[in-house]
Amino acid sequence: MTLTEHEKLLAGQDYDYRDPELQRLLARGKTLVQRMNTQTDAESRSRSIHELFHAAGQRVTINGHFEAIYGDHISVGDDVFINGNCYFQDSNRITLGNRVIIAPDTKFYCGQHSLDARKRFGIRSDGVVI
Asked: What are the Maltose/galactoside acetyltransferase domain coordinates in residue numbering (predicted)?
């Protein structure tokens, strides 16, 4: 069975970030994060959180600026509070249970990739790493 690039990403295997499915997920995440960060009323912000995250419980609050890569790899329970200027590099799943409080400026880095540029980006027919 051949895995998609998205499945490889979630399995911690080498994957091609240029894959169209991953690019669509990245674009979606960027759009939804930007929308959420511009909303000031709690109800609109809550709707955006529920649209951005894979799963979000009741009474989830993000206070201030927030950043994520995909958004769709994030699941949170009930009564979660994420303070301002937090960054979720969700190139894999991030799961927070109920009643979790995240301090300001907290960063979650959940990605993995090869350190060898030839594996990450490929090699052109002339041997140049792209």
From this structure: 6-58
So what's the pLDDT on residue 117?
Answer: 63
74-76 and 55-56 beta bridge pairing = parallel
Which residue type occupies 19?
Answer: D
- In the block, residue with structure tokens 């109920």: 98
Count CB-CB contacts under 10 A for residue 39: 14
Q: What is the DSSP letter of 3?
A: P
65 within 8 A of 76, measured Cβ to Cβ: no
> Which CATH code of 3.30.365.10, 1.10.10.60, 3.50.50.60, 2.160.10.10 fits the domain covering 5-111?
2.160.10.10
| Residue 56 CB partners (closer than 8 Å, separation 6+) | 49, 50, 75, 76, 80
Residue with the two structure tokens 């989830």: 60
The pTM score is 0.85
